[in-house]
Amino acid sequence: SFCNTEKACSMKSLLLSALLLFTGAASAADYDLVIRNGLIYDGSGQPPVSGDIAVNGDRIVKLGNLDDATGREEVDAGGMAVAPGFINMLSWANSALIHDGRSQSDIRQGVTLEVMGEGFSMGPLNESMKAEMLERQTDIRYDIEWTTLGEYLQFLEDKGVSPNVASFVGNGSIRRHVIGYENRPATPTELDQMKMLVDEAMREGAVGLSSSLLYAPSMYADTAELVELSKVAARHNGLYISHIRDEGDELLESIDELIRISREAGLPAEVYHLKASGQSNWHKMDLAIEKIEAARAAGLEITADIYTYHASSTGLHVQLPDWAREGGIDAAIERLSDPETREKIISGIVFRNGPDSILLVGFRNPELRKYIGRRLSEVAEELGKSPAETAVDLIVEDDSRIQVVYFSMSEDNIRKKMAVPWISFCSDAGSYATEGVFLNQSTHPRAYGSFARVLGKYSRDEGILLLEEAVRRLSAYPADNLKLEGRGRLKAGHYADIVVFDPATVRDRATFEKPHQYAEGMIHVWVNGEQVLQDGEHTGATPGRFVKGPGWKAAGSYTVRN
Question: Which terminal residue of the chain, N or C, has fewer Cβ atoms less than 10 Å from its own Cβ?
Fold first, then answer.
């Protein structure tokens, strides 16, 4: 057609130019993101292949040679390793993510999913539990704006966090909700109430049931109770996972209990941070592996996870006699205020780990933080007291369990565990930053290095497992164990949780003396298609989501009881 005036022709020309630019842009950008020239480790455990990955929105849409395609954003991986985002099977980032959603120490290792809830979960809560949580807060302060576990995980997503989040529902939380800290069997009515709470948590999206049987009140559940609660999780295709009752003298018997629960409840089961604690028990690791192998050969789905260090970390309070810890840490501290009971507790302490192997790393009381980084034996000598007396006095003065590191495991056993194909990995720690409130305390280096050590120290440097196998056990394997759809693999249709790292330089830097140091070698990280790490630096993006377990039901299809 033609135009009648110069002005009309000019306008028509502008409109045509705009249309051409629009259509040209649409055809030029076939995808939102193309990652080019990567060495792709897809999570299957197969050797890597060179190629490109295309992403639209939050999903991977194509892998292979994409020379003929373009992306609105293109990233050249430069021959570096490209892998699925890693899964932290035991994270304590519960409160750290409320304070700082960037999850710096884990994102910089390629962790794109934090799985929380070891025995204690952030829901379901009652008013008494909320009050206790508020009273026990230390440097990180926050309001409790949720009641159920699903509400907590949705709270994190709505607030904005960089990694995806998921959680088990803890039997300790369930027991605390219904029974409190009483050391007794549940009545039939109480057991029904606990089963109802597990059922509701699974429908909300919990990935399974957890227990932490070294700690009150989780430890007060007997095997029969755990079987009954696990049967509920089984109905929702969930996993039973446990910090078993004893990781030292009764390690093998404790694994037997987990296997029994798996068999009788009819669900897979996993051992949290499998270890043989105490030098006199180191030889039991071979027997523990054999026991689990036998259960697997008999058809049970038994797995384990580990952190990659020869030292554990928990409270100093676990050195107190079991009877002294009944009712939780508040009850223990109250007992210690009575002189006669205090002396009885001190005389009953038999250190599971020698005082010279106990490193003090976390105090609630700022005046006691001068002891951070020192051994219990050193502090006892300085104070002129016995180690047992020093331990109880510190607990009372700090009004807390006191976080410590226990040097109690064998490096050789870590290598044995690394080689086992049914073991995945965890940090058993928070996800921190090297700034602000996190520097008020020390921590275990596993908070900054657990996953980098798998890729660097144990795969590249020591050759214990091939890099493709290391990637499988950091990604697809735990995703399969958790029965998560669309996670853990570089595959068309899966969520775009993608990491790019340099296999030659990836390494942990955190030490027991200086734990607040980021790992190196992770270059790029995407979570749900949005970049959170670019050229080794955090972008500030918070695209993480509440990843729901296989039993999740849409809101409105069931009733949650607060």
Answer: N
